[in-house]
Amino acid sequence: MNPLPMGFLTLSIYLTFSFSLFHLTHPLCHNNERSALLQFKQSFLIQDIDQTPSWNLEENSECCSWENVICNEDTGYVIELYLTGLQGSINSSSTLFNLVHLQSLDLSYNDFSYSQIPSAIKNLSKLSYLDLSSSNFSGQIPSEMLELSRLESLDLSGNNLQLQQPGLRSLVEKLTKLKELDLSGINISSPTLNSLANLSSLTELSLQDCQLQGKLSFLCVRFNL
After folding, report:
1. Does this model's pTM top 0.85?
2. Most buried of the four, 3, 13, 53, 128, by CB within 10 Å?
């Protein structure tokens, strides 16, 4: 048997090393998060087929390369998720809430069939951006949302939601890092609008159609601090 050319061996070693180095610097997504994403997808009717065409059940499928999924380049954990066009209900047992490293979650323009915002939202404690607008949520905004203390942007507009217990004051006192807040269309009872002064980092606030009363009962408030 003729020995392999030295150049071929060198190339093979280089490719093997490069492949290993790539996976050291670009870790594959974690199996539990891949499974959580797939189970979350399977719990809904997806109206827009372009949202998740590459999401599949193959064991070696790299979920960090899936549409609308972004992972941390160092750890491989899912840190951003953007999905629209979902139809179906959602509750605290959803595998979405297993993605505990999420920093940005956009589930706007879905149809969650008048579901309440699940209390398990508190599991996503690393969120800095949360958009649940126009997604057919209903009921009281859960107090557990106040545990998302890292939030800088929160949009709950366009849903049939109520902000009573907790009220606006509690939300403002807990979510002090908010820069953008949109509660348009939410029924806010007995608001204490003076408490908004506690949001020193706030730059944009929309309270359109919130049934507010008093001298600050205009449709849209914007701060440029």
Report:
1. no
2. 128
The per-residue pLDDT for range 94-115, each reduced to its tens digit, is 999 999 999 999 999 999 999 9
Q: Domain range for residue 149?
A: 31-206
151 in a structural domain: yes
DSSP string, the chain: -PPPPHHHHHHHHHHHHHHHHHHHHSPPPPHHHHHHHHHHHHTSEES-TTSSTT----TT--GGGSTTEEE-TTT--EEEEE---EES---TT-GGGG-TT-SEEE--S-B-TTBPPPGGGGG-TT-SEEE-TTS-BEEEPPGGGGG-TT-SEEE-TTSEEEE-SS-HHHHHHH-TT-SEEE-TT-EE-S--GGGGGG-TT--EEE-TTS---STT--S-B----
Instruction: Give the CATH number for residue 175.
Output: 3.80.10.10
In a domain, residue 50? The reply is yes
What is the percentage of the chain residues whose pLDDT exceeds 70?
76
